[in-house]
Amino acid sequence: MLEEQKELWADDYGLVWDQYDEAFNEPVPVHTLGTLIHTIEAYMAAAEATTEPEWLDRAEKMTAFAYKVASKNGWRVPEFFDEKWEPSPEAGKLLNDGRRYYEGYVTGHSMQLGRFALQVRAGLRSMGWTVPDYLLEMGTELFERARVDGWRRTDGNPGFSTGINDEGDPVPGEDEHQQWVVCEGVCATVAVRRAMLDDGARVSDVEHFEHCYRSFVDYIHDYLISQPGRWVRRLGPRNENVQPAKSSRWDVYHAVQATLAIRLPLWPPTAPAISRGLLDRPEEPAPDKKSWNFFGLRG
Asked: Is residue 140 within 8 Å of residue 206, measured between CB atoms?
């Protein structure tokens, strides 16, 4: 599968194609932020599982591309790009696999990308590699932009707007409150807080992020958990029920990560961190420990 990534999915820009035709001959001339984000996530997992640093290096290059785009656009990241990776909302309409077409900028994707930037940073540090300065800036700025744009009260009702426009206002029809978005808000604010503490910040320096964390968790408790083990997948902008209701099974991993984020370090990724006994041990390892895995033993 990883060899297929190199042979078929990697494009001329060091990023990845999003979709192929049914004959698997030609890629569809569109790229999406969602695919870029989840490929970064997958490559981090591949790096940890295979102990091959190449995959973390690839994840960092993709993160660097997103930084370049976001930093020039007020820290908002376009959702769709053409075949040359130029922002293009119309390109997203070429996709034919049934995924949702989002209008505007997706707050949840920005927060997810910000978290991954900080996880890539922690992974690079674990290997003793030089850590680019942009990664901490990117994680912090993406979170703050998405928080300011998305976290709001509509007629007194809290929640994250899923999609916002160039002015930072909710996009009509995309202003619903989705479970996965606030879950990514939880994970992102935890990641920024953890990164700052790992860099030597005092607890008083991260009070803002603790306040955000508690606000987002309170929202989940008050509006999204209907009973133990059952989450509401989406609500309207005033937290009213949206019909027809859809199963939350698609988004269960967002919920799991949101409940575990505060209890785990930034690196390694969630599953291997738990398997290595790092639950409730979120602090970064001592500087002389280059890695929890065997990167340091490879040539």
From this structure: no
pLDDT in tens, 23-35: 888 888 999 999 9
β-pair type (177-178, 225-227): unpaired
Is the Cβ–Cβ distance between 271 and 256 less than 8 Å? no
Q: Is the pTM of this model over 0.85?
A: yes
The Cα–Cα gap between 222 and 53 comes to: 42
DSSP state string for the chain = -HHHIIIIIB-TTSSB---B-TTSSSB-SEEEHHHHHHHHHHHHHHHHHH--HHHHHHHHHHHHHHHHHHHTTTT---SEEETTS-B-GGGGGG--S------SEEHHHHHHHHHHHHHHHHHHHHTTPPPPTHHHHHHHHHHHHHHHHHEEEETTEEEE-SEE-TTSPBPTTS--EEHHHHHHHHHHHHHHHHHHHHTT--GGGGHHHHHHHHHHHHHIIIIIEEETTEE--EE-TTS-B-SS---SGGGHHHHHHHHHGGGS-SSS-HHHHHHTT-TT--SPPPTT---SSSGGG--
- Residue 88, both tokens: 């293009």
Per-residue pLDDT reduced to its tens digit, 83-106: 999 999 998 888 877 788 899 999
Interval 106-119 mean pLDDT: 98
Distance separating alpha carbons of residues 39 and 159, to the nearest angstrom: 28
Q: Directed axis angle between helix 53-71 and helix 33-50, to 10°?
A: 150
